[in-house]
Write a structure and sequence with these properties.
- The protein is built from 14 helices and 20 strands.
- It has 438 residues and is α/β, with parallel strands linked by helices.
- It folds into three domains: 9-93, NAD(P)-binding Rossmann-like Domain (Rossmann fold); 98-296, 3-Layer(aba) Sandwich (UDP-N-acetylmuramoyl-L-alanine:D-glutamate ligase); 305-437, Protein-Tyrosine Phosphatase, Chain A (Alpha-Beta Complex).
- The protein has a nine-stranded mixed β-sheet. The protein has a six-stranded mixed β-sheet with strand order 15-16-20-17-18-19.
Length: 438
């Protein structure tokens, strides 16, 4: 455990993570100062009265007079004030680093552009079924610092590239990168290699590294003294195989589970299942328990989720697909005998959408674009594209055209924050409208 007595702490950001950091220090008798660049952040009313708070920008005087800066994942380390503070020798970390300094409990750390929430939840369900007392958090569920208040045997953390940027001492029992595809390019102006470097930090001190055999960018480059395992479609220690006219999960050469017995669907979810099994094996959970949980798991909301089916038309909510790689995975898994009505749009975060073009060349696709970057996305295949201002308008137009065998798929490839508060709000609206008009 680190000793923070007598140091001056500044916390940047008043989201849930910021509040958890404030609570962390207050419990240790340290009163931090708090900065938020927003004039009216949503949690300002939750601040204790004895906390000094600066809103509407960065207070450089506070920063340069501090000993430790705790920054929100949403604030890039390239912010000029943080660059200057670092040059002055002031330590800058995030909540994950605070957490790592406080615990000796084993940690499973999972990252990736797509699927990390699903795999994190899946591994948690397997571990809990094995009787392990689990704390799950990070980029999913609870801020990690709140997990310290309960006694657990294993932490399972979903970590974003933003969180990993400010993490130094993570020593994961198991570290995994599921995949790396272009995302957050507005945050990483040097391109996907800069983004990948942030993800790679998860492996630095890990005991077991698990990577995607189909994605060379996930192969560890910082760690040369650990145990390696891999998973993939038809490659790796864990892979898919055909057996008795069915697709099976195969683990280290062993035919393990008929995928027909699983509750989830989509090729990308079968890959997620392999990843979850690899983690479970790495911490010696009995295969019989893993098999049971692999068949019971129904997936997460807003992640390639069948939300409504009527008159042979399926409505699938994949609102969590906020980047191109996730949308490509969804398109690879989409099955339909009629027409695919595809909903794309939102804030593209400066991404290059051209990788989607080849997936739109297939027959029987109709593309509806909405939101901030709809004009740009529409140029991918204008012959099949309709532009609307909102997702709701698109759904209403689609609803009067769908027929038996059609699939309506929301997999936006964009952030929702141009028109919604979150991908969850976007997905909830899609699901509601599907039931009303479908």
């Amino acid at each position: 455990m680190a000793n923070y007595q007598g140091i001056k702490v500044v916390i940047i950001g008043l989201g849930l993570t910021g509040l958890s950091c404030i609570d962390f220090f207050m419990r240790r008798g340290i009163i931090p100062r708090v900065i938020d660049t927003r004039l009216n952040p949503p949690n300002v009313h939750k601040l204790p009265k004895n906390i000094q708070c600066h809103l509407g920008g960065i207070n450089n005087q506070w920063l340069f007079n501090s000993d430790l800066i705790i920054t929100s994942p949403g604030v890039p380390l390239t912010h000029p004030s943080l660059i200057d503070a670092a040059k002055d020798g002031i330590e800058i970390i995030g909540d994950i680093e605070l957490f790592c300094r406080e615990t000796q409990t084993p940690i499973i750390a999972i990252t990736g552009s797509n699927g990390k929430s699903t795999v994190t939840a899946w591994v948690s369900s397997i571990a809990k079924s094995a009787g392990i007392i689990v704390g799950t958090g990070g980029n999913i569920g609870f801020p990690v610092l709140s997990l310290l208040q309960n006694s657990v045997q294993l932490y399972i953390l979903e970590l974003s590239s933003f969180q990993l940027e400010t993490t130094k001492t993570l020593q994961a029992t198991v570290a995994m990168i599921l995949n790396i595809t272009e995302d957050h390019m507005d945050r990483y102006p040097q391109g996907i290699q800069q983004y990948s470097s942030a993800k790679m930090r998860i492996y630095t001190h890990a005991k077991n590294c698990i990577f995607n055999a189909d994605d060379r960018m996930t192969i560890p480059v910082y760690n040369n003294h650990t145990y390696y395992q891999s998973f993939g479609l038809n490659n790796g220690d864990y892979q898919l195989t055909y057996h008795k006219d069915n697709i099976w999960l195969q683990a280290k050469g062993e035919i393990f589970l008929n995928t027909n017995k699983m509750q989830i669907f989509g090729q990308h979810n079968l890959i997620n299942a392999l990843a979850a099994l690899a983690v479970a094996d790495a911490i010696n959970i009995p295969r019989s328990i893993s098999k049971l949980e692999l068949t019971k798991f129904r997936g997460l909301e807003h992640r390639f989720q069948l939300v409504y089916q009527n008159k042979g038309v399926r409505w699938v909510n994949d609102s969590k697909s906020t980047n191109i790689g996730s949308t490509i995975a969804a398109l690879k898994s989409a099955y339909y005998t009629g027409i695919l009505w595809l909903l794309l749009g939102g804030d593209g975060k400066s991404a290059d959408f051209t990788a989607l073009r080849k997936f739109l060349q297939k027959p029987n696709i109709r593309l509806y674009c909405f939101g901030k970057d709809s004009n740009f996305i529409a140029t991918l295949h204008p012959e099949i594209t309709v532009k609307t201002k909102t997702m709701s308008e698109a759904i209403l137009q689609i609803s009067i055209q769908v027929q038996h065998g059609d699939l309506v798929l929301l997999t936006p490839a964009c952030s929702s924050l141009d028109q919604f508060t979150s991908f969850k709000q976007r997905g909830d609206l899609f699901s509601k409208l599907a039931r009303e008009v479908g």
